[in-house]
């Protein structure tokens, strides 16, 4: 699991920011109904919307809080769940056994759900839509660039760009990418090696994809967490780069 259950995004709340938020049930084109959390700014002067792709636990408090942090800064945000097909749409407790549900996900199913969230964002009046994902969600955020959603950009925190089982990962799908990429990787990540990051860069270069790949030396997987005060500098820089990427491409 990428985060402890009591983790919070390492981003200060903006006191007094006028935002609204609510729980949603969205429906994908294949009929799947899945849970989501929406946060929206009262001042909708920015055109950018964000679809948040969580880690392997799916939708839980960390990502609802992250959606609120985006909304406080003027961006429309929808955080989605992955497990509507296997676990339903009800709220889940801390004892949720997510592993068996992750194993049943498919790239096609996840991207169908992403498309539904993108379309809902368009309906809300936000037409420059970005995906921002973490770990499992980081990988799927990059894959969203190859899925025909018309995205303005795709951000991934410590995503694995390699293959997952028989499914080609972002490295192999790079020639199909239709949006700029921001990759924010952990230097002390035991599973996402420097070799994998280099292969990802080479694939993006060869495909002519606009991208930035940043490695935070010494930072562990899931460094973007308020509990990791020793990695505050990496978290602050990654957040700043995410907002700058969105503002640049919106």
Q: Would you give an account of this structure?
A:
The chain is an alpha/beta fold and 250 residues long. The protein has 8 helices and 8 strands. Helix content is 33%, strand content 24%. An 8-stranded mixed beta sheet has the order 1-2-4-3-5-6-7-8, sandwiched between helices. Strand 1 and strand 2 form a beta hairpin. It is globular and about 40 Å long. The model has no long low-confidence stretch (mean pLDDT 95).
Helix/strand-derived category reads alpha/beta
In DSSP terms, counting alpha (H) and pi (I) runs of 4 or more, how many helices?
Answer: 8
Strand segment count? 8
Rg measurement, Å: 17 Å
Oligomer kind: single chain
Low-confidence stretches: none
Largest sheet: 8 strands, mixed
Element pattern in H and E: EEEHEHHHEHEHEHEH
Q: Portion of residues in helices?
A: 25-40%
Overall average pLDDT: 95
Separation of the first and last Cα atoms: 32 Å
Bin the strand percentage: 15-25%
The main sheet orders its strands as 1-2-4-3-5-6-7-8
Broad shape: globular
């Amino acid at each position: 699991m990428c985060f402890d259950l009591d983790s919070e995004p390492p981003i200060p709340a903006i006191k007094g920011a006028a935002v609204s938020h609510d729980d949603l049930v969205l429906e994908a084109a294949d009929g799947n109904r899945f849970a989501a959390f929406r946060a929206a700014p009262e001042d909708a002067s920015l055109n950018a919307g964000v679809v948040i792709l969580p880690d392997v636990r799916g939708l839980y408090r960390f990502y609802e809080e992250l959606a609120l942090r985006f909304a406080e800064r003027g961006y429309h945000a929808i955080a989605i769940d992955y497990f509507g097909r296997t676990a339903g749409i009800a709220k889940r407790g801390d004892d949720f056994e997510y592993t068996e549900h992750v194993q049943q996900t498919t790239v096609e199913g996840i991207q169908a759900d992403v498309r539904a969230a993108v379309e809902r964002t368009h309906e809300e009046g936000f037409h420059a839509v970005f995906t921002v994902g973490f770990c499992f969600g980081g990988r799927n955020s990059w894959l969203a660039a190859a899925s025909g959603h018309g995205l303005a950009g795709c951000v991934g925190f410590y995503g694995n760009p390699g293959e997952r089982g028989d499914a080609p990962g972002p490295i192999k799908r790079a020639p199909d990418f239709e949006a700029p990429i921001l990759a924010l990787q952990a230097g002390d990540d035991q599973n996402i090696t420097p070799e994998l990051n280099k292969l990802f860069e080479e694939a993006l270069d060869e495909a002519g994809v606009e991208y930035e790949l940043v490695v935070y030396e010494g930072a562990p997987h899931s460094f973007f967490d308020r509990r990791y005060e020793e990695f505050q500098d990496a978290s602050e820089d990654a957040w700043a780069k995410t907002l700058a990427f969105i503002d640049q491409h919106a």
